[in-house]
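Final paragraph of the annual report: two paired records, presented back to back.
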Amino acid sequence: MGGSSSSHVPKEDLAFLLANTTFSKAQIKQWYKGFMRDCPAGQLSRQKFLEVYSEFFPGGNAEEFCEHVFRTFDADNGGTIDFKEFLLAINITSSGKISDKLNWAFSMYDIDGNGTIEKAEMIQIISAIYRMVSSSDREAPQETPEQRTERIFIQMDKNKDGVLTKKEFIDGCLADNVLCSMLTANSSNDV
């Protein structure tokens, strides 16, 4: 699955990524070069992912949030991220369509993978986000993770069954730009 340590993107991976991302051939080759430089075995480990991701949040603790992001990126649950998984994830989170971002975000919040988001799952992710973005020069969030989750559920849980379906989650995000940005990690300013 693209685990070759050569300096060229395998043809089948290149064709797949051209068809399934917004990246050009030159961009894919550039990403591949950097990926192979950082991960010569062609696999990004959980530990290396944490190291890289943590650099973006020097004042906070990104470890727990990274676990959730890594779980979502590791599409085949192999414990590592290969180049195709990596670039698909980068595409979705950086330049993907809003529907792709919302589907990805839903997968991250649905920790147990049962097709719904329970309050405990959302509290866990929001708590991880708070810890990740916390630093001495930032103002503490005004709401606790529990309060924020309660507010989100009041807004999104249309049938009041205590869980969010993918449809409720996506519809709720599309109806509220601020909520959408916060839940898809588009902007840490909203946290």
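The closing record of the year follows.
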Amino acid sequence: ETPFEGSTTAQADFRPYDRQARAQPIRPVEGGAYQKGATGEYVTMSQSEFTAKTSERAQPIKHDSQTLPTGQMESHSTYRDGFPANTGVERVKPIKHAAAMQKETGPMQFSTTSGDSFGDKKVERAQPFKPEHHAMNSGPFEGHSTAHDSYPSYGQQTRVQAIRPTERPRETKPFEGGTTTQASFPGWAPGERF
């Protein structure tokens, strides 16, 4: 078999590159300070910029002798100066009715604006109107309505029978016709595979 010697668009756009050797990590030499168990002195940038400073601790100031006052506190506040106590004002007494007042037992007599504007008017109640002689009709209803005039009755109509084909024998021969797909795409005989 002859090998395929052509190229594809993907091969032309993405050409293979030579794979380079993997870079080896840089490790400290034997005996260096980074070896396990080794000791060394290191200074960071933060330590070099911000050196440690020591200072004496401030001592609290305490009085030599301090005694708690035992007398009455003689001071005043802004609220006390703004609202002084008025001790000489007599307390207002509640207004109460006299003890001899008696409750009225008669009807309440007073007038309101609505009562004065719309006085009481007595009107006789209307009596319902009833016909003297009313006999119920027992015959058939002979009237007609708009729907009855627009949609007249056509009586009972004969039901339309369904049209069915007559019985005929089923074809047993094979189908010899063709389709549009078969005409547009004719069959190809399988050839040799590349």
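The CA atoms of residues 182 and 188 lie 11 Å apart. This concludes the annual technical report; the extension proposal builds directly on these records.
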